[in-house]
Inverse folding.
């Protein structure tokens, strides 16, 4: 990480936290702070990505504004986190995608839909595109050939995975050397990721817009995350059905891919819309306003993927299928392309930070008795 | 806005832990309650917002406390720190009651955490609030609001209109405007007067300008002074306060815990003239941190300097301010505006006086002492010789004052004739001098506030309804 104003501000706050330590029961950040007496830029990036933004520490802080020290840890760390996303982006020139990220994600989305629509309409006969297909085997692929879907999907998603991996590598190196990664550490980190244990203010939930604790955000994120995984499972099952079992799509309503996709889609919708709504009722103080655009753009993109997917299911036997599928795939294309350059990266950096935390779990805090 | 047409059952003056415990308890007992907090909402909670834990008696381990901490040990600890400056009946009652407060605290939204670090080994005796005292205060305010306690911020009690030991009405300033409210009973939970520098100056003169007030600037003792002028009995030495050693760069008010420095036992401490003045290693720090505020207050300019080398530096909690750091003692002295030759001489004679001997052990009294110095350092004495060297300037940090209104076991405030006032109760720092007349036990202020707050709320509600 470069030395920036955000890094300097976060360092000042972490030094105050380290002399206080009252918040150590809230989450993984503070016990990690206590292992250090000096905070390199890489340390601060690690702490920033460890922070889940539950805001428990902000409301509990005796030094939060209007105290003259104005301590606002969720905000200070969110600033560093945002800079870290750009810092670790791969390839480096694309780091600028994180400036005005909301606009970038929205534009890519618009372009993705337009491109898929344009290509499918141009390459197809109108009868194919607008015709009713019933649920005959392979009807989806009459609109867009399977090979086209697969090539575009594998190329974009594959590139995104490579870019994410490179980003995590940059993060890991920046935060300094670590002991080797053991299976216990991986298990602990995985548990923390899957349960969002640290989005819980010591098990009590987040402080959304007041001192009161609530599990709302954690549950909505679970709905979104596990809904997403179910949708992913639906796609994978479909792929297996088609490629290995020779059962072409579309599948019946009670088939595994459709059930997984439907439940997943509904969960994603609930999660993304709920989380978006919370952005507007949250206390703005512990938030970084300029990051709101990117956050909301990704939530909206995910919700549109879910919504168009469900819509496609509903209209797949009608003349609207062609159009619905093109739009659905347009959103997915945009999602694949923007994964390494959107809020999505928080998932991998935070997981990596939790893994580091799990590795250093047995280290003794410095100072104190 | 206070309701001028209404006679509240209970008016609580103050907005910290003791006030909230009284208000919530009274409301739960069916009373209508008005809580009057002099601070604005952002700074509500008095000194409680800077606290972290509560000392609780327990006969066996529970969710938040390890081992056992029984009544007699608790009482012995209190007797030791107060030097007998306590009231055994009230103290034992408080100690016993402390074992039973958890259920009510949890119901009222307080959350506890297992103790981890930086806590002076208090996991056995003290229950830690998750997120500290401000989180506790927040939880109590939420509960009070939910139960229907009326809360006024930016509102100060300026006068209790007392006749024959009975409060007829209470004059307040509500956001600067004078108002009068009526209540059947009043609970005074408005803290000590340590933030009232003019009052402190009466006893300490201009040394006050060099004191740091660790807690809220809103504890100005207005209620306390008002009651003293109306024939209420007092207890506790008005000139005395609890003070610890703080980083001298701390803000005048509200610096809280982070300005505390635990470097003394592993350092050489000199005054402005470069002379040592007290045994830095007399006892483990948890038993000594509370006397160092007083020691520094008695030095010229109310300032001292803690100097250690790189061996000692990692042994204590960091303060919020970076240490002065230099490769030589002389440079360090210059940075701290001390006479370099004098500091060198003091450290040299200290280093020469260190007896070679025992294994250094920072976790116990290790017996590593100096010989032939006045004063000697009796534990953890090691030559200060491995650069870089680190220094911190220290000032007395005032936590609270001991002067209190006198109370009985029902939290009733006593008049000069030792008869209880008709409808006045007290809880928290404003009466803690009854039990803690001297010294300090970590987390005991919150214990007194909680126990007496609960009693005061109960008794006031009972009286108001009769």
């Amino acid at each position: 990480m470069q030395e920036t104003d955000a890094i300097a501000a976060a360092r000042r706050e972490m030094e105050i936290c380290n002399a206080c330590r009252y918040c150590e029961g809230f989450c993984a950040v503070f016990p990690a702070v206590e292992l250090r007496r000096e905070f390199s830029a890489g340390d601060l990036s690690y702490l920033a990505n460890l922070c889940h933004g539950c805001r428990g520490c902000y409301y509990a802080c005796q030094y939060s504004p209007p105290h003259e020290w104005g301590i606002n840890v969720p905000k200070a760390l969110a600033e560093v986190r945002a800079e870290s996303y750009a810092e670790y982006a791969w390839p480096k020139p694309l780091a600028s995608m994180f400036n005005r990220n909301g606009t970038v994600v929205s534009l890519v989305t618009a372009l993705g839909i337009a491109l898929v629509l344009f290509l499918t309409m141009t390459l197809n006969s109108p009868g194919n595109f607008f015709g009713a297909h019933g649920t005959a085997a392979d009807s989806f692929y009459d609109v867009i050939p399977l090979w086209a879907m697969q090539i575009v999907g594998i190329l974009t998603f594959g590139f995104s995975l490579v870019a994410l991996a490179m980003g995590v590598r940059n993060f890991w190196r920046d935060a300094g050397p670590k002991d080797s990664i053991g299976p216990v550490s991986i298990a602990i980190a995985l548990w923390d990721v899957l349960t969002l244990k640290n989005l819980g203010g010591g098990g009590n939930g987040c402080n959304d817009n007041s001192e009161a604790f609530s599990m709302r955000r954690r549950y909505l994120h679970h709905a979104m995350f596990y809904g997403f995984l179910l949708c992913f499972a639906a796609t994978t099952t479909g792929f297996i059905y088609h490629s290995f079992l020779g059962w072409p799509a579309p599948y019946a309503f009670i088939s595994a891919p459709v059930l997984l996709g439907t439940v997943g889609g509904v969960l994603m919708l609930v999660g993304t819309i709920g989380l978006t709504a919370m952005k507007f009722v949250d206390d703005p103080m512990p938030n970084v306003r300029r990051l709101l655009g990117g956050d909301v753009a990704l939530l909206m993109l995910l919700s549109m993927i879910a919504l168009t997917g469900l819509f496609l299911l509903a209209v797949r036997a009608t003349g609207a299928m062609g159009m619905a599928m093109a739009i659905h795939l347009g959103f997915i294309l945009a999602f694949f392309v923007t994964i390494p350059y959107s809020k999505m990266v928080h998932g991998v950096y935070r997981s990596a930070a939790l893994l580091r935390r799990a590795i250093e779990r047995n280290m003794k805090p410095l100072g104190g008795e | 806005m206070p309701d001028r047409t209404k006679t509240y059952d209970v008016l609580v003056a103050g907005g910290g832990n003791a006030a909230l415990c009284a208000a919530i308890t009274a409301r739960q007992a069916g009373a209508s309650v008005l809580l009057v907090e002099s601070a604005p909402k952002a700074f509500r909670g008095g000194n409680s917002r800077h606290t972290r834990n509560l000392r609780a008696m327990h006969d066996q381990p529970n969710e938040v406390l390890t081992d056992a901490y029984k009544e007699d040990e608790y009482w012995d600890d209190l007797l030791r720190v107060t030097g007998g400056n306590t009231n055994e009946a009230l103290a034992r009652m408080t100690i016993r009651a402390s074992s039973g407060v958890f259920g009510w605290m949890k119901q009222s939204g307080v959350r506890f955490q297992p103790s981890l670090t930086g806590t002076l080994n208090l996991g056995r005796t003290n229950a830690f609030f998750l997120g500290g005292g401000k989180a506790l205060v927040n939880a109590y305010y939420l509960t009070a609001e939910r139960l229907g306690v009326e809360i006024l911020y930016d509102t100060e009690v300026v006068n209790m209109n007392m006749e024959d030991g009975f409060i007829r009405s209470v004059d307040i300033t509500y956001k600067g405007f004078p108002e009068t409210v009526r209540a059947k009973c009043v609970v005074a939970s408005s803290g000590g007067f340590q933030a009232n520098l003019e009052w402190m100056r009466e006893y300490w003169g201009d040394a006050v300008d060099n004191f740091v007030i660790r807690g809220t600037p809103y504890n100005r003792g207005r209620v306390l002074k008002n009651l003293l002028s109306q024939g209420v009995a007092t207890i506790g030495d008005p000139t005395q306060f609890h003070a610890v050693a703080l980083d001298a760069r701390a803000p005048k008010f509200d610096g809280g815990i982070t300005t505390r420095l635990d470097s003394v036992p592993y350092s050489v401490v000199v005054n402005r003239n470069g002379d040592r003045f007290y045994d830095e290693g007399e006892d483990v720090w948890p038993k000594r941190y509370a006397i160092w505020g007083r020691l520094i207050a008695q030095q010229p300019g109310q300032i001292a300097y803690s100097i250690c080398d790189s061996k000692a530096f990692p042994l204590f909690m960091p303060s919020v301010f970076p240490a002065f750091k230099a490769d030589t003692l002389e440079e360090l002295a210059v940075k701290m505006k001390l006479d370099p030759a004098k500091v060198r001489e003091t450290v040299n004679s200290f280093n020469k006086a260190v007896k070679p001997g025992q294994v250094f052990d920072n976790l116990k009294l290790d017996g590593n002492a100096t010989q032939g110095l006045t004063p000697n350092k009796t534990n953890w004495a090691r030559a200060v010789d491995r650069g870089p060297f680190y220094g911190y300037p220290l000032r007395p940090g005032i936590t609270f004052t001991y002067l209190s209104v006198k109370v009985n076991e029902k939290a009733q405030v006593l008049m000069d004739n030792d008869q209880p006032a008709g409808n006045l109760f007290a809880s928290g720092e404003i009466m803690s001098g009854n039990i803690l007349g001297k010294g300090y036990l970590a987390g005991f202020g919150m214990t007194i506030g909680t126990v007496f707050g609960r009693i005061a709320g109960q008794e006031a509600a009972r009286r108001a309804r009769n």
